[in-house]
Specification:
The complex is a heterotrimer of chains A (about 300), B (about 325) and C (about 525). Chain A has helices at about 5-25, 30-55, 65-110, 115-135, 145-150, 160-175, 180-190, 190-195, 200-230, 240-250, 260-280, 285-305, and strands spanning about 155, 160. Chain A is mostly helical. Chain A has one domain (about 40-265). Chain A has a two-stranded antiparallel ribbon. The longest helix of chain A has about 45 residues, at about 65-110. Chain A is globular and about 60 Å long. The termini of chain A are close together. Chain B is built from 14 helices and two strands. Chain B has a two-stranded antiparallel ribbon. With about 525 residues, chain C is an alpha/beta fold. Chain C has helices spanning about 60-70, 90-95, 115-120, 135-145, 165-175, 195-210, 220-225, 250-260, 310-320, 340-345, 355-360, 370-380, 390-400, 420-425, 450-465, 475-480, 505-510; strands spanning about 25-35, 35-45, 50-55, 75-80, 85, 100-105, 125, 130, 180-185, 210-215, 230-235, 235-245, 275-285, 290-295, 300-305, 325-330, 335, 350-355, 435-440, 465-470, 485-490, 490-500. In chain C, helix 4 (about 135-145) crosses helix 5 (about 165-175), helix 12 (about 370-380) packs across helix 13 (about 390-400) and helix 14 packs parallel to helix 15 (about 450-465). Chain C starts with about 25 loop residues before the first strand and ends in a 5-residue tail after the last helix. The chains are: A mainly alpha (about 300), B mainly alpha (about 325), C alpha/beta (about 525). At the A-B interface, helix 4, helix 10 and helix 12 of A face helix 6, helix 12 and helix 14 of B.
Chain lengths: ~300, ~325, ~525
């Protein structure tokens, strides 16, 4: 499916779900509801961007550590907030994320560890470390007012977090499609050997992709504390696999290569609307999981047979 | 010849790891090699071992199955909720569960082999569906598994504990499969699907078959765990999936397919199981367990990576 | 009677010489891919015990034709008869069961399976319902390989074989299926002359056993040597079909294949080389390079020759920074250079057109434009920018300059013919001022027209000062285009020939280690 067709399909589907929701549950389509859903979609979209970077870099790339790193970012920023202030605390959180991402990248690009395994291992170490750290140090965990403002408030009716997401989306689109680095990333994902022979430093490119992913995950965790009000363990966990799914539905190929974030952003929106619709009509977790799985399968099938050259 | 084969199978790092962790375990628990300890270990490890071998079969075919854990949960809930007072009693329940397992495997097989969906995402989707079904069957942990199953599992046959026999039979099955045309097709497709197709290998049937065979093992795993818990829990199998991936990697099986052997998965499962023992016997407070498990997986990875690096330098 | 364009007459045997039914008779074969007609009513006959050579440029349809005969594709129209019976293959496997087997130009083996298993994949010798008879299979594998004179380890994973080993394995695999009709598609591309000789022995043995052979090759000398008749295709149509009686009229064949009298191999223009830009001394890499010394001067085209696998590929890859030398030095304009990756060498102006264009030269899932600009994009100083307009101009200019036949810059590169793909691989480097251009067998599997164009481009580059080092397995090509030729043997340069000494006999002698 071409990029623009996918975007249209996803947006169309989201609209259809919203309308369906309104029919079944009047009030579903209210501005506050939509704003809420956009907020959740924004977080999912940001995590899905992490996955987009990892997947585009090739070699069955994914980042299973986004949840752990987000939690790390949230906990760290909340802990440092009282002493360093919002900005510095946020920067520390992002730096930690960048560091973790670099470790991932080094393992994957230099040591040839499969991404599935490398990011999984790092995630368990970080999660474990956080459990220990939190119980030993019992750091403050409240989100500062500034972060809460971003996470919770709105500007002219548009939730701030969504504005942040728009800004990040713009940067992502430019980075992936309109910068030499984005082309190098797609090239590395398409064929690392050819990219190497064409003059790329594939190790640096792939490490950079995972580093960015880590930094972004930590940043998103930092913002998440604002949305939720505090930092807690398991903050990011729910987003790990859903972000991969959003990237897949959004059209990013697991083998690597050309990718665009626009489809992924729309996929994040569609998935959020779907889940909230299911929650709103009170389908138990059992039904939600099944419908979620079936929807994903549906997309995969459409994708598979919608391609003109199958 | 033997040593070359051993080296090429990629199990040496995993084997070395196993020796290391067993040594650690023995140090912490001097009675490790005593019969009660070994029996207890094998009984506990068997469900995981079986899922890991199932994953290995699929990975050798260059696919992945992220729904194995949810499958174990679903089969477990089926065993625990099917009425046992029907014709045939517990055996009917077991047969029905077996058929269910094969059906689940067939669904995955159809999606991946015949519809050509990417296995990682497709099985992630079916995993959600299996989990949903398990929750539907058993919203809260409960139900009852026929205690006869538990007795069977804890018994000794021919002087060997039943769990050990199960693993031996499964490994023997794997060896036979490796000698059979179908087993080699499975690996050939994982190594180079295009070449296998040109050679006339029925590629899609091979992948479909891989899933069905793997889910036979998932069924055995569900039986084994149900025999121990004697009840149903929809979240039972949650950790199995990623454990199976870790075990496959520790065992030297390439995620790109074609390279490695099910023995590697057995090794990997044992390594992970014994590491849990080590953590327990070292008296590490539970709060540190997650952290240590992660560290140990990283150490295993490091070992494996250096083995790979050394091979490349040679 | 079948098609014949005006002015082309049959000579030698007519196809209607009364004899037994031909082994294979393909008539009126037509095949379209989307809007492109690859084959338009082509006839081909193969006789038992005879070798028919199938010649044609890329895009002529010969690959398509052989794939149809081998069951990999189904024709849109036309019939295939096997000893008089109309057949239709549903799959390559079915064709193989009927005795029609193809040895592919690009062997595709399962890299992790041992050689003996690869050879019998799909035709396993089994017993008791599917269990593999290992000893019997291994014995058979060893015997077929022995016949080809190959000293390969049958237990080695196929992925560890060299290109020539894989080619031999592919041919062995085809032979092990006991074909009645064997199609050899560019079987000698990666083989050494000794292996080619053994192959031809096997071919003669097969024909004397009544097997029919279809032999596809660009190497006219080989075709002349082994074929009883030839069929020439151009643009999906047959343009010539006659018995060879031991000698080929090469000029006429070329004319038929290209339809362009100017496509003859051009006479060589001698150049005056400039200063020394590259000096390699005592370069060593494992067992592949055992101390290579050479010098390159600007404006000259130096050819690298010798038997396959004597280190030519490794030499070029090492100079380009793709391999790390164990010893020795590479000096560029008096300054010693070393590289951890090709990027470092590219910065010094040393560029490589690699051996395998599918796996090393092109991003097969990307467009012509993306591929052409990949080097510029990789090397530019400011990664946050992308000078779109400038790049587009470069792409248009390069497509024009190299005469690349493509629907446009946006076309996926996988759809181009081999020759055009190779032009893209070369074109990538035109934007980065390559001072030293290394080419590793750039005309392998490329039709004669594109070859001429490629060498014309190299001439142009040399004219503007680039130093070119090109490895080609076709000695004739090198003799025609190079200022001097270096012959490699067992990891060393054993002979440097220029001027009068540059002839095929000296090259051959040096290739076998017997030099002046």
């Amino acid at each position: 499916m071409s990029g623009s067709r996918r975007v249209l399909l996803l947006l169309g589907l989201s609209l259809a779900l919203l309308i369906l929701g309104q029919i079944v549950l009047p009030g579903f389509l209210s501005p506050t509801q939509i704003a809420n859903q956009l907020k959740i979609a924004a977080f999912l979209g940001l995590f899905a961007l992490c996955q987009t970077l990892a997947m585009t870099a090739g070699g069955q790339g994914l980042d299973l550590s986004v949840g752990a790193v987000a939690t790390l970012g949230g906990v760290l920023s909340a802990a440092l907030l009282p002493s360093l202030g919002t900005l510095a605390a946020g920067c520390c959180a992002v730096s930690a994320g960048l560091l973790v991402g670099m470790l991932n990248g080094a393992g994957i690009a230099v040591l040839d560890v499969p991404p599935l395994v490398a990011t999984l291992a790092l995630a368990s170490v970080i999660n474990g470390g956080l459990i220990v750290g939190v119980s030993v140090f019992a750091p403050p965990n409240a989100a500062g007012p500034a972060v809460a403002a971003i996470g919770g408030n709105a500007t002219y009716g548009v939730p701030n977090i969504v504005l942040v997401w728009f800004a990040v989306t713009a940067v992502a689109l430019w980075l992936l499609l309109r910068s030499a680095w984005g082309r190098r990333l797609a090239a590395t994902g398409s064929s690392a050997t050819v990219a190497l022979l064409s003059g790329s430093n594939t190790v640096v490119v792939r490490t950079a992709a995972y580093t960015l992913s880590g930094g972004l995950a930590a940043f998103t965790g930092f913002l998440l504390t604002g949305y939720v009000g505090q930092a807690f363990l398991g903050l990011g966990n729910a987003y790990v696999l859903t972000s991969i799914v959003a990237a897949a539905i959004g059209g990013v190929a697991l083998e690597g290569g050309r990718a665009s974030y626009l489809g992924v952003a729309c996929a994040a929106i569609m998935m959020t609307v779907l889940v909230s619709l299911l929650t709103a009509i009170n389908i138990g977790e059992s039904g939600r999981q099944i419908i979620f799985g079936l929807t994903l399968l549906g997309f995969l099938v459409v994708d598979r047979f919608g391609r003109p050259t199958s | 010849m033997f040593w070359t084969d051993l080296r090429r199978s990629g199990v040496l790092p995993g084997l070395a790891m196993l020796v290391a962790v067993v040594a650690l375990n023995v140090w912490l628990q001097p009675h490790f090699f005593g019969r009660p300890s070994l029996e207890s270990n094998i009984a506990t490890f068997t469900p995981t071992i079986l899922v890991c071998i199932a994953q290995a079969i699929i990975v050798l075919n260059r696919q992945l199955d992220l729904s194995l854990g949810a499958g174990v949960s679903l089969l477990n809930c089926a065993l625990a909720s099917l009425p046992t007072d029907i014709v045939g009693g517990a055996w009917t329940t077991i047969v029905v569960t077996l058929l269910l397992a094969l059906a689940l495997g067939a669904v995955n097989g159809i999606l991946v082999a015949f519809l050509g969906l990417p296995s990682l995402i497709a099985t992630f989707a079916t995993g959600a569906i299996w989990f949903g079904l398990a929750l539907g069957l058993m919203p809260q942990p409960g139900g009852a598994v026929d205690p006869g199953l538990g007795d069977l599992y804890g018994a000794d046959w021919f002087g060997l504990p039943v769990p050990l026999l199960i693993v031996c039979v499964v490994m023997a099955g794997c060896i036979l499969l490796g000698r059979h045309r179908f087993g080699r097709w499975l690996v050939a497709v994982g190594s180079n699907p295009a070449s296998a197709f040109q050679a006339g290998v029925p590629v899609r049937a091979a992948t479909f078959g891989a899933y069905v065979v793997a889910w036979l093992l998932v069924f055995l795993s569900a039986l084994s765990i149900s025999a121990q818990t004697l009840s149903g829990d929809a979240r039972l199998g949650q950790t199995y999936t990623l454990t199976s991936v870790a075990a496959v990697v520790i065992g030297g099986i390439s995620l790109a397919g074609g390279r490695g052997s099910p023995w590697g998965a057995l090794l990997g499962a044992l390594v992970l199981g014994i590491i849990a023992n080590v953590i327990y016997f070292a008296g590490i407070p539970s709060i540190w367990q997650e952290f240590f498990k992660g560290l140990v997986v990283m150490a295993a990875l490091g070992f494996m990576v250096f083995g790979q690096l050394r091979r490349r330098m040679a | 009677m079948h098609f014949l364009p005006e002015g082309v007459e049959l000579s030698g045997d007519s196809l209607l010489t009364p004899q037994a039914l031909p082994l294979l008779s393909a008539r009126g074969i037509t095949k379209r891919f989307g809007g492109v007609t690859a084959l338009d009513g082509v006839d081909l006959q193969a006789e038992a015990g005879r070798v028919v050579g199938l010649l044609g440029a890329n895009g002529s349809g010969k690959s398509t034709l052989s794939r149809i005969i081998a069951g990999e594709l189904t024709p849109d129209a036309g019939t295939i008869e096997l000893t008089g019976q109309v057949i239709a293959h549903a799959s390559p496997h079915e064709a193989a069961l009927r005795g029609i087997v193809i040895a592919h130009q690009h062997p595709s083996l399962a890299p992790d399976l041992p050689l003996w298993e690869n050879m019998f994949l799909g035709t396993e010798r089994t017993r008791f319902g599917g269990f593999i008879d290992r000893s019997r299979t291994r014995r058979e594998a060893a015997s077929v390989l022995g016949e080809l004179g190959a000293t390969l380890d049958i237990d080695a994973p196929a992925g560890t074989l060299t290109a020539s080993g894989q080619q031999v394995a592919e041919i062995a695999r085809a032979l092990s299926r006991n074909p009645r009709l064997l199609i050899l598609d560019e079987p000698t591309a990666s083989l050494s002359p000794a292996e080619v000789a053994r192959l031809f022995d096997v071919v003669r043995r097969l024909t004397s056993d009544g097997v029919g052979i279809i032999f596809i090759s660009h190497r006219l000398a080989e075709v002349e040597q082994i074929c009883d008749r030839i069929v020439v295709l151009r643009n999906g149509r047959g343009v010539g079909d006659w018995a060879t009686s031991g000698r080929l009229d090469e000029a006429r064949i070329l004319e038929l294949m290209t339809g362009d009298p100017e496509a003859r191999l051009r006479p060589h223009i001698r150049r005056e080389p400039g200063e020394t830009v590259l000096a390699v001394s005592d370069l060593r890499v494992g067992t592949a390079l055992r101390g290579v010394n050479l010098e390159l001067r600007s404006g000259e085209i130096v050819g690298l020759s010798g038997l396959q696998g004597q280190g030519q590929e490794e030499l070029l890859e090492t100079i380009a920074g793709f391999r790390r030398p164990a010893a020795g030095s590479i000096v560029r304009r008096g300054v010693r250079v070393s590289a951890r990756r090709p990027r470092d060498m590219i910065r010094h102006g040393i560029c490589l057109v690699p051996n395998d264009r599918h796996r090393q030269g092109l991003f097969m899932d990307q467009s012509v434009g993306d591929n052409l600009t990949s080097v510029r994009v990789s090397m530019q100083h400011r990664p946050w920018q992308l000078p779109v307009a400038e790049l587009r101009r470069f792409v248009e200019q390069t497509i024009e300059r190299l005469q690349v036949k493509t629907e446009g810059a946006g076309q996926n590169v996988a759809r181009l013919s081999g020759g055009n793909q190779q032009k893209i691989v070369i074109g990538k480097w035109l934007g980065v001022h390559a001072e030293i251009l290394l080419l590793s067998d750039p005309t392998k599997g490329v039709d004669i027209h594109a070859r001429t164009e490629i060498y014309a481009t190299l001439d142009e580059l040399a004219g503007s000062g680039t130093a070119i080092l090109v490895f080609a397995s076709d000695v004739q090509e090198l003799l025609l285009h190079c200022d001097r030729i270096l012959v490699m043997y067992e990891g060393r340069i054993v002979e440097a020939l220029a001027g009068e000494a540059m002839n095929e006999q000296r090259v051959m002698a040096a290739s076998f280690g017997r030099g002046a």
